Structures are given as structure tokens and as C-alpha cells.
Amino acid sequence: MKAATVHRYGPPETISLGELPPPQPGVGEIRVRVHATTVNRTDTATLRGHPFFARAMTGLLRPKMQILGMDFAGVVDDAGDGVSAFQPGDRVFGISPDLFGAHAEYICLPADGAVAKIPGALRFDQAVIGEGAWYANSTTKRLRQGQRCLIYGASGAIGTAAVQLAKTRGTEVTAVVGQRHMELAKALGADRVLNYETQDFTAIGETFDLVFDAVGKTSWFACRPLLKKGGIFAATDLGPFSSNLILGAWFGLTGSQRVGVPFPEDAPGFIQQLAELVAAGQFRGVFDRSYPFSDIKEAFRYVETGQKTGIVVITMP
């Protein structure tokens, strides 16, 4: 099978395109012929070995996962013993959060893992929606009906998912984006959209139950005036001088939980929930651009610019 492999930390140039034997499904596993995958912030950070302490999980000197890629959409082509939920020919999508492996023509994963049947006639390149939504859900699941939230950076894969997931929970959503993304945020259901290029969103004189930094470019200190008493600030990155991580640990010790760097959980359950939301018309992927598998290095370079809108897709040969 064709695969993109990495054997050391570094820039996109360290990725090698080559041929490997296809994996064989074990007991309770399915094998998926991958038709589409993505390149996202998780992939670029893992390729670089950033932040350094994350190497305790990804490998100290070189990546443990020699094939990156979390999102996949494709067709089940084989199944191991004990599998009844899927049959060869089933169109499926999902994520592989522990072992990655989707930057290849085939991927094996547990049949009871984070995989679900693709709703309706959704194309494969429209079904690679799991990774950003999973991270967004780890924060938006805190929301309750009638609460107010502000999402900063509501134009990336996590931010666009966060707006939609927050609305499914019956909350009032204020999205903060640049000028070119204002109409997109409105179309996704945001109740109000602020342009950070012309307005200081931290000085609007309002407070929220949740402030979610979906791009990791602000801090609790900057957003503190926006928080209600007991309000939560959550971010997808460590923040300046790792302040989000430090404050999250501190507030965790004091029991207030006012700052958090979310760690998503229950990937299988969430992917099933996401399939239901898509089928009900309550969630859709937002896509920036698509690259053929042969140009996957260029896709990594583009994602590293930090300028993408939504999801960057890789189509397999």
C-alpha cells in the first residue's frame, strides 16, 4: 500500500512517500480502504515533536507513530473474527486517536472504536470531520441550555465545529473571527459575530459562561474580563509561557476548574453522536482545500501557516 511515513521529528521534508505491506485485521478489528484523510494541527505538532513534553506519549527521540493521520473516510474491505457491526463494503468514517495511521491506503482499527457508518450519500472527502469536532466537543460539552459562550478563532477545524456543537446544546454563541470569515460564522449558526481585526473583543463589556480559544492565540489573563463569576476559560494550546497549562493545574488543585486545556475522551461514543448530528442536518464539515496524496508535504506546509479555514483534506489514489 502507499503510505506517508515519518522516522524522525522535523519539518514536512522528513515525510517519506513509499510502499508498505497492508495491515491485516486482528480479532475484533476491521480494515478500511482509505479514500480521504486530513492534515491538521495534531499532525503538524506530532511531526515536529511539539510541545516537547508530549514526546512522553509520542516518542522521546523519534515518533512512535510512523504513519500519521487521525481522520479517515473509506470502505471496509476486510474484517477479523468476532466482528458483526460492519461488513465489507460499508462506507465508514472516524478517527484513530491513539495509533494514527490514516495517511495510508489502508488502516486497521477496532470495530468498537471511533468509527461509524457515513450518513446518507455524504462523499468521502466531506466525511473526514472527526478530529476537530472531537477536540471541540471536549469543551462545548460543558455548556448547558441557556448559557452564553464566546468562541475565539471560530474559523478553523475546531472553531467551526465548536460553533455548531454549542448551538446543538441550546446556547447563545458569539464568534470571533477575521473579516473574511464573518459570513461563514453566521452561516454556521453564531448568534453574533465580532471582527477581531477592527474590534477588541475582550473590551465589549459583556460576560460569558465559557470563553473558548479554539486557536491557542489568547490567554486567560486577556479574557478574564469576559468571564462570569464561575465562568470557564478553555484553550486548545498551552498559551503564553505555558500559562494555560499552569493555571489549569492551579485552578484544578483549588477545585474551581476555571482554566482548562481540554483533553477529549470517549472517541467511539462521540463519533456515533457526530454521525447522528450529520444525519439530522445539525452538523457539517467546513473545508479549506484538498490535496492529492502525492502532495501531502505541501498540505503540511500549508497547515503550519496557521491560515487554514476549517479542514484540509487529502484524497487517496
User: What level of helicity do the residues show?
Assistant: 10-25%
State the fourth-level CATH superfamily of the largest domain: Medium-chain alcohol dehydrogenases, catalytic domain
Number of helices: 9
The first-level CATH class name of the largest domain: Alpha Beta
Nearest-integer average pLDDT: 92
Fold-level CATH name of the largest domain: Quinone Oxidoreductase, Chain A, domain 1
- Unreliable sequence segments: none
* Rounded radius of gyration (Å): 19 Å
The chain-level structural class is alpha/beta
Helix and strand succession? EEEHHEEEEHEHEHEEHEHEHEHE
Termini separation comes to 10 Å
Number of strands: 15
Largest sheet: 7 strands, mixed
Could you tell me the strand content as a percent range?
25-35%
The CATH architecture designation of the largest domain is Alpha-Beta Complex
Count up the domains.
Answer: 2
**Large-scale geometry:** globular
Brief write-up:
It holds the Pfam family ADH_zinc_N_2. Residues 1-24 are annotated as: Disordered. The protein is of the alpha/beta class and 317 residues long.
Describe what you observe in this structure.
- The structure is a single chain.
- The protein is α/β, with parallel strands linked by helices and 317 residues long.
- It has two domains: 2-129 and 285-315, Medium-chain alcohol dehydrogenases, catalytic domain (Quinone Oxidoreductase, Chain A, domain 1, Alpha-Beta Complex), CATH 3.90.180.10; 132-260, Rossmann fold (3-Layer(aba) Sandwich), CATH 3.40.50.720.
- 25% of the residues lie in helices and 26% in strands.
- It contains nine helices and 15 strands.
- It has helices spanning 41-48, 55-58, 130-140, 157-168, 182-187, 220-223, 243-254, 267-279, 296-304; strands spanning 2-5, 16-19, 29-39, 71-79, 91-95, 106-110, 115-117, 148-152, 172-177, 192-195, 208-213, 227-235, 259-260, 287-292, 311-315.
- The strands form three sheets. Strands 3, 4, 5, 6, 7, 14 and 15 form a seven-stranded mixed beta sheet that branches. A six-stranded parallel beta sheet has the order 10-9-8-11-12-13. Strands 1-2 form a two-stranded antiparallel sheet.
- Helix 9 links the parallel strand 14 and strand 15.
- Helix 3 crosses helix 4 (157-168) and helix 3 (130-140) crosses helix 8.
- The N and C termini lie close together (10 Å).
- The relative contact order is 0.16.
